[in-house]
Amino acid sequence: MAAISFRNVVKRYGSGKQANQVIHGVNAEIAKGEFIVIVGPSGCGKSTLLRMVAGLEEISGGEIAIGDRVVNELEPAERDIAMVFQNYALYPHMSVFENMAYGLKIRKLPAAEIKARVDKAAAILELGHLLERKPRQLSGGQRQRVAMGRAIVRQPQVFLFDEPLSNLDAKLRAQTRLEIQKLHRELGITSLFVTHDQVEAMTLAQRMIVMNAGNMEQFGTPEEVYHRPASTFVASFIGSPPMNLLKDAQGGRVGTITGIRPEHLDVGDSGWEVRTETVEMLGAERLIYGRLNGEQIIVRVAENERAPAADEVIRVKPREDRLHWFDAGSGKRI
Amino acid sequence: MIERNRFLSILTHLVLILGVLVVAFPVYVTFVASTHSMEDVVTVPMPLTPGSHLIENYRVALAGERAGTGTHAAVSRMMTVSLVMALAIALGKIAISLLSAFAVVYFRFPFRKACFWAIFITLMLPVEVRIGPTYKVVSDLGMLNSYAGLAVPLIASATATFLYRQFFLTVPEELVEAARMDGAGPMRFFKDVLLPLSATSTAALFVIQFIYGWNQYLWPLLITTEERMYPVVLGIKQMISSGGDAQTEWNIVMATAMLAMIPPALVVLLMQKWFVKGLVDSEK
Known about the structure:
Distance between the termini of chain B: 31 Å
Largest sheet of chain B: none
CATH topology of one domain in chain B: MetI-like fold
CATH architecture of the largest domain in chain A: 3-Layer(aba) Sandwich
Number of strands of chain A: 18
Order of helices and strands of chain B: HHHHHHHHHHHHHH
CATH architecture of one domain in chain B: Orthogonal Bundle
Radius of gyration of chain B: 24 Å
Helix content of chain B: over 70%
Number of helices of chain B: 14
Oligomer: heterodimer
CATH class of one domain in chain B: Mainly Alpha
Helix content of chain A: 25-40%
Number of domains of chain A: 2
Strand content of chain A: 25-35%
Strand order of the largest sheet of chain A: 6-7-8-3-9-10
CATH superfamily of one domain in chain B: MetI-like
Distance between the termini of chain A: 37 Å
CATH superfamily of the largest domain in chain A: P-loop containing nucleotide triphosphate hydrolases
Structural class of chain A: alpha+beta
Order of helices and strands of chain A: EEEHEEEHHHEHEHEEHHEEEEEEEE
């Protein structure tokens, strides 16, 4: 277990005038044993950041430290980390056992020790009966577990996960999410987990880093990120449906954007006048899509409330303590 | 043909059988000729049923004990020379191509592209085109009448390098990264991951290159002047006297031809299993 520090980390491709900067100075301190999720839309630099920790991408500026060692100049194998890849990257010609043992074999561990470690990891991941199989004889979920097993046997300081769940179907993904949480509770190893899926991020993270266009927008617990988004980007990226962001809501000051989550609007006799457009039934709740002064607004109501017809004018009242204010220019929280 | 039609299946079989006959008949004639005495072979028409001199002819050929004109080298020696040459060419080509493709695909070094194109351009220069300068080099190095002289100039291969390059490009980038995380250095990755993955391509290449090496004629013709270094394909030609049919012992020549056919046929038959295995469970 080790802490990880990002100190003004910069990544650029190319040099001189053609240089294309993709990470613009990330600063973060991750404590020992924390489970951190890095989340953001595709192309925001989250995978690049992870690969810089792994040593698969060079660090163009700043430092990354694992424990008290700055790892900028270290080879991936010397960083005492293990990574789970998106496509698992299992060696196709090796059996499950050999796949998990390969890294240990290179480190010249005694055969008995290798066997003990692999058997232990296999037991945790319920892979014991599959050790002789080749990866192509395994299902997607089993391959995923082998990839995790390969990381576990290394007993590293840090686990790195690069979208490991994105190739699984929805049901398996939810199940694996729980397994990863359980694993983290048992092993307590510092983990960095990259995903573009905000549900994954919210459910797995102890703290999460929200990235946008190479910048760290917010670093906090899921509750903080959800209830006190640092910018309009975070407000609209986290939460489904996203937070309503209104340029000229009543009560808003000039030059500010008013934010309110769909579940913090109550339909009643007073408040904002909203002309409804469509209503979606989601089972336990309904989403009412409408327009407020020409801007789109979404209201979430319980399924037992009355569903308004299309093109009806309803009144919604925001809960005052749930309103957010953002600067219209920078998008930052006020 | 999916539909079951009696007439069509008879027709297709007829065509197939005809094709087999066209290919097999000359081989059969060669075999028959190798089982007769010299007098029987030169009679017109030549008998088309096997004769009684089979064992004697093959023994004479292998031991090089015949009486007629042309070379008297033993075919057993020729076969050994051919085998060594073909193996050296096939294995040498595979070794060099694997390593050069590995370098071109996985390492960033100055003029990498230029190196690749230099290799690629030699595809346009087969042995025959560069045979004059190559001969000069080999003779200046004193490699005439040696195994090295027979094999080395034929080893450099753009085709095989290109094939391995294309294969390496299909190996997922993540596999390389996983190996780096596991602490495998470049040669370790090459040995533990790339070699096993390209085993089926290697088997295919081995067959093709073995036959290519075995069938070399022009190059050995140029650089071997001593009978002890004749490969068998060249040896057959040297047994046929240029003075006319009379002195040529066709039965022995045909026996030698049959013997020369055996090793390539064996290689194809034995390696066929590998092809099928490679096709059925492609490991990628």
